[in-house]
What does this fold into?
Amino acid sequence: MNKLSVIIPTLNEELFIKDAILTASFADEIIIIDSYSTDKTIELAKKHPVKILQREFDDFSSQKNYAIDKASYNWIFILDADEKIPSALKKEIQQVLQKENKNVAYEVLCSHIFMGKRMKYSTFKNEWKLRFFNKEFCKYGKKLVHEDMVINGTTGRLKNHFDHYTYRSFDHFISKKNKYAWLQAEEYYKKNKKPSFYHFVIKPSFRFFNQFILRGGFLDGFPGFASAYINSYGVMTRYIKLWLLHKGLK
It folds into this structure.
């Protein structure tokens, strides 16, 4: 049977880290890659049999690649601190590890729990993420956010999902959007992309219309409205931050 390393990136995840570690306890190794948390994340993690690495955060791809290089085993599962692996997915992962496999990576369906509701529509519908892979054939690329993976081989899809608890508080959700907006703005700035009226007004408005109406976000009730609205805000702030970068006003 192949062995598995689960990698959990963290930054101030004291509310979630215990559950994330426990849900990954079936793995042969758990690695915490921490960006120098200032809360009790590390203190709580040390109560469990985990390997703790700390590194200044520069971007998501570099952070994860660093931990992947330090992993003892070839098969890797990336688990964010606010995510859990249900028992059905755990069994399926173990079945994959038990056999010789032509695939070098697997996409896993992400099931979002947002504002206490399991979301089914809009951007939450059928969101596949490449989380389970053999590091001999896979590595994250250079994107600063929404990381892509360079894969040398074939990929498959697992049947079972993992759970993502999208935010711990409203302020936390907004802060995550702001963090992603800065990273995306920096990525666009390096490519000399210039913002315009289209980016400030049309694109955010269409993001809301697309997610709430066209993709059925209204079927998720008020959480669907809140998600579409905040996501449109995230788009707008991304380009405001890009404008600030061009003006030297970060």
